[in-house]
Amino acid sequence: xxxxxxxxxxxxxxxxxxxxxxxxxxxxxxxxxxxxxxxxxxxxxxxxxxxxxxxxxxxxxxxxxxxxxxxxxxxxxxxxxxxxxxxxxxxxxxxxxxxxxxxxxxxxxxxxxxxxxxxxxxxxxxxxxxxxxxxxxxxxxxxxxxxxxxxxxxxxxxxxxxxxxxxxxxxxxxxxxxxxxxxxxxxxxxxxxxxxxxxxxxxxxxxxxxxxxxxxxxxxxxxxxxxxxxxxxxxxxxxxxxxxxxxxxxxxxxxxxxxxxxxxxxxxxxxxxxxxxxxxxxxxxxxxxxxxxxxxxxxxxxxxxxxxxxxxxxxxxxxxxxxxxxxxxxxxxxxxxxxxxxxxxxxxxxxxxxxxxxxxxxxxxxxxxxxxxxxxxxxxxxxxxxxxx
Length: 389
Fold this sequence. Notes:
Layout: E1 3-11, E2 15-18, H1 19-25, H2 30-36, E3 41-43, H3 51-60, H4 65-70, E4 71-77, H5 88-95, E5 103-107, H6 113-127, E6 132-141, E7 154-164, E8 169-179, E9 185-186, E10 195-196, H7 198-220, E11 229-232, H8 238-247, H9 253-261, H10 263-273, H11 280-291, E12 300-307, E13 311-319, H12 329-337, E14 340-341, H13 344-351, E15 362-363, E16 374-380, E17 383-388
């Protein structure tokens, strides 16, 4: 039985910062941002959008009544959780009107969370072939103004429906994982902003890739010749190029050229959004599938997931015949092209805004909600309030 991705969609806030203008404001050569890290625009979330509302909006863009009836598992990978107890999955379950006899919970391991959800869902569907699972990866990446991580911020969500007999990507039932206790990136409970040792994190990422790729080859007897393309977790899009160069360092020229030939298509969406943490690998995969010419039936795509702290995994999937018919390319391109550009002053003011942390009531400015259906209306009696318009 094949198990994999039957539907996929994404959502991002309707406002962004131009990276060239941000670079100029910071006294940095613009090419450092646009070429050096490979980012063109950076999504910025207003107060009425958080990980929950973005995940709900991504899900609402793909779910139909049959999905709502058959989904019996909702798994939400995020490192931007909004409550220490209640999971974002429960809110999304309600906002999307999924049938009530579904299990729902949240998963956390930095940017690896959505991958953990996929792996759990595959096991669930293997035991329950009629089931469907909703997998969510939604985050707001924030490092603060004038920090080294500032140009690698972003906001967005990816939602996937996993099922048997998937129409987009059948996931292979093999993978290689690695866990090590390291401190390359973290965010303490008391901080709104993440901390990162950028150089060490890049080194750890590539070291994990080398390790899990080697283990994957041992387990499966596959090599680069067996892959049409490889997608990566993207804290910034230039990371994919570094990863590809590392992966193909001693590869035959034919394999290196084929894999690098898909690089630009696989980063097209991420360049416009920025880092979305748990969703970034799957936004890259979606970008590859939608921006490339239709890949041949049976083409295998490699997937490298990395979550700082750290967990890495290499796994793969096979594209299904006619998969293009089940994607929403026009919708996603329209979502990106219709956003409003923030001035640098607007961006700086917004980035430093936050909801109260002292238990006081607060309302968000929902009049500015232009895209999406789900949004955060505010906090009342220490409870977050969401609505769907």
